[in-house]
Each structure stands twice: as C-alpha cells, then as structure tokens.
Amino acid sequence: MKLYTKTGDKGKTSLMGGRVSKDDLRVEAYGTIDELNSYIGKAVTELDAQVFKDLLEDLETIQHELFDCGGDLANVMKERKYTLQESSIEALEKRIDALSDEAPPLKRFILPGGTPAAATLHIARTVTRRAERRVVTLMNEASDVPTIVQKYLNRLSDYFFAAARVANFRSNIKDIEYIRSGDVFK
Q1: Which class for 116: exposed (0-12), middle (13-18), buried (19 or more C-beta within 10 A)?
Q2: Distance between CA atoms of 135 and 30, rounded to whole angstroms?
C-alpha cells in the first residue's frame, strides 16, 4: 500500500460516512487534536523514564484517547458508536488531583516554561484549549457532535497544566510567577 492516495488532491477528505472539504470545521477540530497528539509525542521524548514513569504512562493513554476523540469527531455515519468514555474523564480528574497535590501550592498565574518537557506540556495545554474551541465551534454548527470530546479536552488542558508543574517540581525548577498577577488560586 502506498502512503499517498491522491484522493485529497482536489481539497476534499474522507470521514467515516462521507467526504468534506479539507477546511470543514470537523476536519479542523480533529486536525487540531492530531497536532496536540504530536506535541505530546515531543513531550514524551523530553521526560526521563525513571523520574516520570507515571507521566509517561498517562501521556501514552492520553495519546490513545486523542485518537478516540478524532475518530469520534470524524464519524458521520447514520449509526454511530463512539469510543471515548466518561471513565477517561474520571481518570484524568484523579491524575489532576494527584499531580496538583504533589506540586507546591500556587497563588498566582505562572509563566509557561521551565524544563524542556514542562515547556512542551504547556504548549500541549494551549493547543488543547484551541482544539476545545474548534470542537465548540463545531458543536454550535452541527447537532451530531459527541459532547464528551469537548468535556474531555476541557479536563485535559487542566491535566497538562498540572503535569507541567510536576515536570518542573521533580526537576527542582521553580515555576516563575507572573509579576503583575494577583492571587487567583485559593
């Protein structure tokens, strides 16, 4: 099988159950999720396996779940069975709580950065927010969008924030507070 198919040479792409323009809102949403997944792959290369075993396990699970999100968004068949489950969101919430408890208390906004891994996790956080905005736009235009994808992405951005903080903490790098921030976390 060849990697290229030439079926998209005229600006159309296939979904499960149809074809649409490559700039369709649905394609933009799952394309942004694909971009996010690539940043996670980059973060994985920047994390020491002995120090960050738990984060690496989390990130691999998240990468699979993001493929689930993309597949669920790309499914426009009349009879649909979605893959992403509420249990994925519940697992994220448990990990967010555990990571938040590990990192030092936070009162103010922080600047994205620190270690290379933490910086990449912050990029993943912001790309997640963009993906969520794309999904919300799609939800406003189409009634057949699985709402669990938006909910998952909303939680996932919080996970990346907590994970980035832990990546710095375990590396003995302090987060830098935004100097003009008031106390926003209580």
Answers
A1: middle
A2: 8
Give the global pTM. Answer: 0.95
pLDDT tens-digit readout, 45-65: 999 999 999 999 999 999 999
Cβ–Cβ under 8 Å, residues 85 and 142: no
**Distance from the Cα of residue 16 to its chain's centroid:** 22
- Read off the DSSP letter of residue 18: E
C-beta atoms surrounding 109 within 10 Å: 15
61: three-class secondary structure by DSSP = helix
Q: Regarding beta strands 18-21 and 12-15, do their DSSP bridges make them parallel or antiparallel, or are they unpaired? A: antiparallel
Cα(11)–Cα(8) distance, rounded to whole angstroms?
Answer: 5
- DSSP label at residue 3: S
